[in-house]
Amino acid sequence: MKLDWQSRIINQNKFRPNDNRSAWQVDRSRIIHAAAFRRLQAKTQIMGIGLNDFHRTRLTHSLEVSQIGSGLLRHLEKQHPDFTHFPDPSLLETLCLAHDIGHPPYGHGGEIALNYMMREHGGFEGNAQTLRIVSRLEPYSDGHGMNLTRRTLLGFIKYPAFIDDLWHTIPHHDPQRAFIKADDWRPAKGLYKDDKATFDWIVAPLSDADKQRLGDFKAVDEFRSKTSFKSLDAAIMELADDIAYAVHDLEDAIATEQITLKEWQNHALPALELVQCEWLSDSNLTERLFLGSEAQRKDVIGELVNLFITQSSIVHTELEFENPILNYTVELPHSYQHLLETLKSFIYQRLIRASHMQQIEFKGQKLIIELFEAFACEPLRLLPETTANVFRLAQQQNGNTHRVICDYLSGMTDEYAFKTHQRLFSSNS
């Protein structure tokens, strides 16, 4: 029997008279009303720039990714009118809105800290946590999260292999060191073995050959491997996320004066001169970003977003998959991909990797490690009642109790993690 991509892992008989929503619209509704989605409003997109009311939170970033994703889909549908395998607009909105709900407190610092503490228990990674939240943790159903459709869940999987396999060499752990080296403990991007049953259900409609191809990966450094393929839906969402990061985060950084004209001239312009993109030569990009009015800056930001959307197209993947959802992806021409990567690299190097930003990440990293150690030491004493009950159940079933603590800490906002740390460790609390 052909398995339906609109099916859900459990059948819930909901009393919804005259509910004319599609399956994809139902999924979007469940995301919007989820606590994990609401918590994004208390997590900043770029740490350290929330000093005024301009800065983007993870929530506003997700709304922008959704808007860009919708634009990409409309463009691709117009460009490829005979292509019949595009995701429904509501499905894509769902993916874009929720792509960051697995984001832990303190950004990448928190992610590194949790991955380090989970080094012997399956690791931690933000995208893996997103799938875990929507399919396991969010209390809409009994044990199956939001009970979303199979194709929606597949779209959340950007890295379709298990962290245990992708993290091919775990870094040496020196208990004598006071601090950990962040680059060593950056997570391999994949899924948790704890969620294998969910993953197996999601990919059940695929042939054995497609399942094997989908999980292909290759080593990228001495510790980690990376997967090579994802669904078309995930690819569109990922491109929308990249555009929002490269363009709107740049807008934030300029508006909040985290990036100066001098830095742009010294570091961005030399790299942009190597990009063979006709738009750049006629855009007056520097003048409109830094020297003009706010309206001019917003205008050129809009031009950049439109540029990347309208240059995108559907292409075949490197391997021949049997399922069309896997056999196609979305790409930019080389010159425009080069432009996008140049802007992303500039933001990463001059803002994310700036010393004052890294100091904030380091502080958050240390805070999360200390919280994990405290809760792991006396979980039934310190965990809230509902989480303590989950911990007891995991104990009884010989499950991964460390994953329960990790789930609890990763769901915190930055402020809540800070206040919890103060209660436990501060003499002034």
For the largest sheet, list the strands in their spatial order. 1-2
Radius of gyration: 22 Å
- CATH class type of the largest domain: Mainly Alpha
Count of discrete alpha- or pi-helical segments spanning 4 or more residues: 22
- Ends: how far apart? 60 Å
**CATH structural architecture of the largest domain:** Orthogonal Bundle
| Percentage beta strand | under 5%
Describe this structure in words.
With 429 residues, this protein is mostly helical. 57% of the residues lie in helices and 3% in strands. It has 22 helices and four strands. It has a two-stranded antiparallel sheet with strand order 1-2. A two-stranded antiparallel sheet has the order 3-4. The longest helix is centred in the middle third of the chain and has 24 residues, at 232-255.
List the main descriptive attributes of the protein structure presented here.
429 residues, hydrolase, 2 domains, two-stranded antiparallel ribbon, Deoxyguanosinetriphosphate triphosphohydrolase-like protein, Hypothetical protein af1432, single chain, mainly alpha, two-stranded antiparallel sheet, PHydrolase_assoc_dom, HD_domain
Quick overview of this protein structure:
This is Deoxyguanosinetriphosphate triphosphohydrolase-like protein. It comes from Pseudoalteromonas neustonica. Helices cover 57% and strands 3% of the residues.
What topology does this entry show?
Elements: H1 23-32, H2 35-38, H3 58-79, H4 89-98, H5 107-117, H6 126-137, H7 150-156, H8 163-166, H9 196-202, H10 208-214, E1 217-219, E2 225-227, H11 232-255, H12 261-272, H13 278-282, H14 285-291, H15 294-311, E3 313-316, H16 324-327, E4 328-331, H17 334-352, H18 355-377, H19 379-382, H20 385-396, H21 401-410, H22 414-425
Helix pairs in contact: 1-4, 3-4, 3-11, 4-7, 4-11, 5-18, 7-11, 11-15, 11-17, 12-17, 14-15, 18-21, 18-22, 20-21
Protein name: Deoxyguanosinetriphosphate triphosphohydrolase-like protein
InterPro entries: dGTPase, dGTPase-like, dNTPase_2, HD/PDEase_dom, HD_domain, PHydrolase_assoc_dom
Family: Belongs to the dGTPase family. Type 2 subfamily.
